[in-house]
Write a structure and sequence with these properties.
The protein has 465 residues and is an alpha+beta fold. The protein contains 15 helices and 21 strands. It has helices at 14-17, 33-42, 48-51, 70-84, 136-149, 166-175, 199-209, 220-235, 277-284, 300-310, 333-342, 348-351, 354-367, 393-401, 431-439, and strands spanning 4-5, 10-12, 87-89, 95-104, 107-119, 128-129, 151-152, 156-160, 181-184, 190-196, 214-218, 247-254, 262-263, 266-269, 288-295, 315-320, 325-331, 388-390, 422-425, 450-451, 462-463. The protein is globular, with a radius of gyration of 23 Å.
Length: 465
């Protein structure tokens, strides 16, 4: 694993802000306009004002640091809160133990990890591996924010192999009996954090983590942004060997942690030709065996229950808007052969993923042929109709039933609404898939995984200056 080090975090002074629950927020990419407004109202020092500052009338050019806009306002809030004592810098470098206690599908879970600074490595040049494609827009946005504020507000979510959970258990022993700081987010997830400053414990942690690889679970855009910011400073002659911008804020979670939960990301498509279940079956041809499972959007939970129980990446559930029917499709040997032909630049592990079969074989090739196949396709699924992404079957049902309402697309842009011509239920990639495909130096299609719950911003802030 790349070098990890403790750091002196910037933290909220609870004497000034009261409850920590009032000042945390989720990462920018899961915040819609409604939640943004709610967080603004929750507390005048909520980290939303830095993480995702809203546009205001009369804003200037966002590329002009001297202009008044959402990035310069974020920097001003940071400056003011530091000078007013709302935020303070820790006296000693520390490792921060971080637990998330939550309930999902009627079961209680606790995901455990720890936050450190992790030395940056370009993907493909060390032991830090990505697993998903990225989009240029979010990286440009996060780079503007980083330039303005010179901090990491959100953690990169990293996974590392540790069959015995030795690293986490070391830290759990170190914080036993200590009272954590605690916050509850808008979804009811409880976030707890402890501080470890014992140099002997930290030294042992660094030694345990030394040989391990790190796989990015979430935060690919922010990680690449950190590398780009590092390059900018180097080009300007401002990067010294010990500069903080050589590192990024990382949340490290063991792959064997019992609280690790990966949810599916289902898709709803506009922009495809209208079709019914019979026409869908004809288009899928010999590549899939198909069976009509029933009619009506509200049948989604039953269809998903069947797919989830089978736990096969090659089984997909499709809803055709024209006749409002559900079709369960299972890839055949002929379909796998076709997939190998059209995605030969990828490994068999990549080709076998449900999301890969859905986008490359079904949508791109069988339903929406692309005139110019590309070995780099997958970057934001730019050659495909942009889907709406949801994580629960309840959201699938709601989206199908309210399909005429305006919705946000994958980049957050408001669309025109209208019926979804196709919905797809797809199995999530597993942690083992991430390990295998990452070590092939490949990336999965965007939104292949969704690690629930999201890490929150506002517990610690990593200074880059």
């Amino acid at each position: 694993m790349p070098t990890i080090v403790p750091f002196r975090a910037l933290r909220y002074d609870l004497k000034q802000v009261g409850s920590l629950s009032n000042v945390i927020c989720p990462p920018y990419d899961v915040i819609d306009a409604e939640l943004q407004s709610k967080l603004y109202k929750l507390h005048p020092a909520n980290v939303i004002r830095m993480e995702l500052n809203r546009d205001e009338p009369g804003d200037g050019d966002i590329n002009n640091p001297a202009a008044n806009h959402r990035y310069s306002r974020a920097a001003k809030f940071l400056q003011n809160w530091r000078s007013e004592g709302v935020l303070y810098e820790e006296a000693k470098p520390a490792v921060y133990v971080y637990h998330q206690a939550f309930e999902y599908a009627g079961q209680k879970h606790t995901r455990r990890g720890f936050m450190v600074r992790c030395r940056l490595e370009r993907f493909g040049e060390g032991k830090i591996y990505p697993h998903e494609e990225t989009l240029s827009g979010p990286k440009a946005d996060r780079l503007l924010l980083t330039r303005a504020c010179r901090v990491n507000l959100s953690q990169i979510f990293g996974l590392f192999p540790d069959a015995e959970n030795a690293a986490q258990n070391l830290l759990e022993k170190a914080v036993a009996g200590q009272t954590p700081v605690e916050a509850t987010d808008h979804l009811g997830v409880v976030h707890r954090m402890w501080t470890v400053i014992d140099e002997a414990v930290i030294k042992q942690l660094v030694e345990l983590m030394g040989p391990k690889p790190m796989f990015i679970a979430d935060g690919h855009h922010r990680y690449e942004t950190a590398c780009n910011y590092q390059d900018e400073l180097a080009a300007a002659g401002r990067l010294t060997p010990d500069h903080a911008a050589n590192y990024v804020l990382m949340m490290c979670v063991g792959m064997s942690d019992p609280g690790l939960l990966v949810l599916p990301t289902h898709r709803l498509f506009r922009g495809l030709a209208a079709m019914d279940s019979k026409q869908l079956t004809e288009k899928l041809g010999s590549n899939f065996t198909t069976r009509v499972a029933g009619e009506g959007a509200d049948l989604a939970p039953t269809v998903w229950g069947e797919i989830d129980k089978a736990a096969e990446q090659g089984t997909l559930g499709f809803f055709t808007g024209k006749d409002e029917r559900w079709t369960v499709a299972k890839v055949t040997d002929a379909g796998r052969k076709r997939m190998a032909e059209i995605a030969g630049e990828h490994s068999a592990d990549w080709q076998g993923l449900g999301v890969s079969l859905l986008h490359r074989l079904v949508v791109e090739t069988l339903l929406h042929p692309s005139p110019q196949p590309s070995p780099t396709r997958g970057e934001g699924e730019k050659d495909l109709p942009k889907p709406k992404y949801v994580h629960t079957v309840d959201e699938v049902v709601e989206s199908l039933e309210q399909g005429d309402a305006a919705t946000r697309d994958a980049t957050g842009v408001m669309g025109q609404g209208g019926r979804f011509e196709l919905a797809a239920l797809v199995m999530p990639a597993t942690v083992e898939h991430i390990r295998q495909i990452s070590q092939h130096n490949e990336r999965m299609p965007a939104k292949s995984t969704y690690f629930y719950p999201k890490l929150v911003s506002g517990l610690v802030i990593n200074l880059l200056q």
